[in-house]
Amino acid sequence: MQLFPELFVYSLIMENNHAIRVENLTKLYTPRRKPVVHALRGISFSVERGTIFGLLGPNGAGKSTTIKILTTLTPPSSGTATVNGYDCVNQPLETRQSLAVVLQQNAFELYLTVLGNLRTYARFHHIPGPEANRRITEVLDQFGLYDERHTHAIDLSGGMRRRLQVAKAFLSGKPVVILDEATTGLDPINRRTTLEAIRQQASKGSTIVLTTHLLDEAEDLCDRLVIINHGEIIAEGDVAEIKRLGVPAYTMNLIFKHITNNTLNYLNDQNPLHLKHNKTTVDITVQRSHQEILDLIKELDRQYGLIHFEVHTADLEDVFIDLLSQQAEGRI
Ligand SMILES: Nc1ncnc2c1ncn2[C@@H]1O[C@H](COP(=O)(O)OP(=O)(O)O)[C@@H](O)[C@H]1O
Ligand SMILES: [Mg+2]
């Protein structure tokens, strides 16, 4: 260490910069009288402090299993996971003290009011009175729960209950907040409020890990993403990087003068990732270079007559589906 003091300090800083580290994590479930499930097949990732990290994947990908390991609810079969520098297997207490979690199942006191729930939670976490009041006011406001503060949880809509649960997690003031599908199934208004509140919390320095199978949610929120499928990481990076991993994909909204079977056949021959048509309007996503897209539009106009077109880069969903299918075919 004497020889390279800078290096040593640097490596410590690097370590401290990560709120979560997962290395070669595997998980085998061995249910009785059922085949063994390889829920995780050796995944590694790390999450920088103060960032929003998205764990994405379709149902059964292994997201909740990863969260259960991080929150010490289940041990990994092999590999290591640390939260806030604490080992999830060997330092379960310190790990649990470093994080707040919203699991897929709801957990709150149905017969307490919103305020009652928040106060009970604050007391449980030994947050001193004045500080608790300050934080409760803050989350009531952020999560749009102020008007409902005297409503019993049992009388809240599903979306409002979800909000209360996420608000509770942030009330704890823990450095790491983990949300397992917390924003899934929310109506658009509930969702916007919840996502906005999550963003605000991250800007104050919380590290947030969220899982979702909804890609637009991740696209809106996450600084970094890992996409898993069948217990393996299939893509990693920020939204722009993930998009670049696929062959460039563009979505075009086209309006034709008329649509005939010939038009549709021509469009189908382009091997679209998505194709939807309604009367004279078509939404189509194809993998092409920028120039090829321009050529295709010219050709469509020449052969079939376009009234209007718009082109934008494909959203994460298209790239995601493409990555998954490439993996299934063994191409990546
Ligand atoms: N307790 C369990 N016993 C057996 N298999 C399980 C158990 N929990 C999850 N699995 C299986 O592990 C795989 C990953 O599940 P999970 O981590 O819940 O995925 P996700 O949260 O991405 O939908 C699935 O095939 C699921 O059926
Ligand atoms: Mg899950």
Topology:
Layout (H helix, E strand, L loop, with lengths): L4 H12 L1 E12 L7 E12 L3 E5 L6 H8 L7 E6 L2 E2 L4 H6 L1 E4 L11 H11 L4 H14 L15 H14 L4 E5 L7 H16 L3 E6 L2 H7 L2 E6 L2 E6 L1 H7 L3 E8 L4 H8 L5 E5 L2 E7 L2 H15 L1 E8 L2 H13 L4
Helix pairs in contact: 4-5, 4-6, 5-6, 6-7, 9-12
The chain binds adenosine-5'-diphosphate and magnesium ion.
Give a brief rundown of this model.
By secondary structure, the chain is an alpha/beta fold. The protein is 39% helix and 28% strand.
Provide an overview of this structure:
With 332 residues, this protein is of the alpha/beta class. The chain folds into 2 domains: 5-243, 3-Layer(aba) Sandwich (Rossmann fold), CATH 3.40.50; 246-328, Alpha-Beta Plaits. Helices cover 39% and strands 28% of the residues. It has 12 helices and 14 strands. It has helices spanning 5-16, 63-70, 92-97, 114-124, 129-142, 158-171, 188-203, 215-221, 239-245, 261-268, 290-304, 316-328; strands at residues 18-29, 37-48, 52-56, 78-83, 86-87, 99-102, 176-180, 207-212, 224-229, 232-237, 249-256, 274-278, 281-287, 306-313. The strands form 3 sheets. It has a 6-stranded mixed sheet, sandwiched between helices. α4 runs parallel beside α6 (158-171). The chain is globular and about 70 Å long. The two termini are 41 Å apart. Magnesium ion binds at residues 63-64, 104, 180-181.
